[in-house]
Amino acid sequence: MPIDISKLSSRHLLEIDACTRCGECLNSCPVYAEREDEGFNPRGKIQNLKKFIRGQYGLWARIFGPKKLNEEDIIALSEKIFRCTLCGACDIACPVLINPKDLSIAIRETMVEMGHYPKAAENVKKNLLSDHNISADDNEDRAEWVEDLVEIPEHGFQKDKAEVIYFVGCVSSFFPMVQKIPQNFVQIMVKGGVDFTILGEGEWCCGFPLIGAGMSRELEKLKVHNVDKIKEVGAKSVVFSCPSCYRTWKELYKTDVGLLHSSHLLEQLVKEKKIPLKELNLTVTYHDPCDLGRNSGVYEPPREVLKMIPGVKLVELENNREKTVCCGGGGNIEMVDPELSAGIAKKKINEIHNTGSDIIVTSCQQCVRTISTRARKQGIKLKVMDVTEIVMMAMK
Amino acid sequence: MEKTLITYSFFILTVLIFFWGLWFRMSMYLLGSVEGAEDAGKWKTFTILWGRVWRSFWSKPLWYSKAIAIDVIFHKKLFGQSFYRWLAHTLIVWGIIVVVAVHIIKLLSTFCLAGLNREIPLFSFAHAFETGTFCHFLEFLISAFGIITLIGCLMSIVRRFFLRPDQLLTEEEDIISLFFILFLVISGFIAQGLLIAIPDVVSAHDYMGGFTENWVNYWMGATTGFLNKITLMETLQSRPEVFWYVHIIPGLIWFVYLPHSKLLHIFTSAATVVANKIKE
Predict the structure, then answer these.
(1) Which residue has the higher pLDDT, B280 or A286?
(2) Is the CB of A22 less than 8 angstroms away from the CB of B167?
(3) Which domains are present in chain A?
């Protein structure tokens, strides 16, 4: 079966050709730092694909006929293509503004069309389309985390009409380790007088994992459902504590409502003094989640929140803002290759350690999970917090 | 004149093959999907894309011009990443651009216009391009930017084969591209030097550079004079035009090779920058 390049866009094909193998992307690729194999870095992936495309559609192929594709080479390419955190560091590094991250997603889609993709990707699709969440949990239990709160209003934060919808996201809803994020955030919003609701079982996965699985064509059903729910509630804005949900809505959902990350809302509430903050005597460092920082351009709101908490000293990581290094939790690699994910997280923990701070704060449930899990397994005492948690801490 | 005509005919053929090569590569990109051009043929898709680029540019001409100046012409990102690499790249790029541009000006002025003036005396002004002060200026540009290209090539060779940074991957294509340019520059200098060292060639108008005034590049003549003593210059003295062809034929082959090599990034990288800016 030939590589059907019509699945790639003209722009992607141009980018594949424009790569001069300069290698600037190598220094920023967390997967390459871990595997040190040319095939795992963006340059290697692009060059391998270029080889296939030229073999099928290049000058020699036109004169002498297309080169027969070696199945083993395609499988090897697929394995490497699905081992990318989609962190976007290579996009920043490329001197000719190629977007290897988008290219990686497009190549994953081509690989899915060709039937060469990891079983984990198939599970993602199955879970999302049948159970409407990433973990194949019963979607009716989406708001179960509310039950652990001390003060629960009668409506359980699920109202028919509200100004703001809090889109909780699958990981924060179903993974106990990070359920404190929505628990803290709803309490902050109550204190700040925000008229909000959650959707409970009416919330379906935003579809972000399907993008990483190379199956974004399946996302439409989820998108239509979620947008309809927003219309039903009549909300003016949607707030997300998950950067990936936030980014997916921003880039792929066609909706007129305002889209905010929790750090935007927290910044607003703190600035307007709607939530009182007491002094905390802490030195913290901040990790920019890839989907919030580099991929959505939100760097300052979480930092502003931290700076506004009295007594909090913010120490920057060596690689911060657009140069931040992924924690290892992106691109579905935790499902495809947990060992690789752990290796990347280990490097991140070392970087955090070098700052000498007591706490690492981030704005992403997946980063909290990945860094906490790895630190625990390494026996390193490291307090990992979401920005909502430190604000909650300062409110008490 | 017949030799000249043959050479220029080959030049025109080369240009045609070069543009065919560009279209061949571009038509490969057009096999990909383009939103809003799902059922269109390649040419139609190309016109749709070009229309988008055109409209985007004219919606914010200053913004795009600035972006092109900073990211394409100046290579801002590369400058921030490695000054050495940026310098080598810039010297090669600008060296080649100016040398090729001046060659084209010389081609048009000395052959098309001055040549035509000998038959139909309507383009007497072109004589200044052939032998006048402007001709000396053009010759100076070719020599100066030839040296610039040479320095860029040598810097690239030092980086690729001696400094060898970890991120660098040297493949056949890199070696061919680099040494092809180096060969063209060096052979160009030797051809020019021979032209100065062997005045008979000039008077015979045997090859394209035959219109150069001797004093312009006399210092290069000294170099070739040295070469005269150490190489088989007797052969070259009897058939000096041979070296011109040693320079010009690979030069034409280089043009044909360009769209099928990594050197195509001259065009594709500029296009990715513009595409990225449109996306922004």
Answers:
(1) A286
(2) yes
(3) 5-117 (1.10.1060.10), 121-268 (3.40.50.1860), 277-395 (3.40.50.1860)
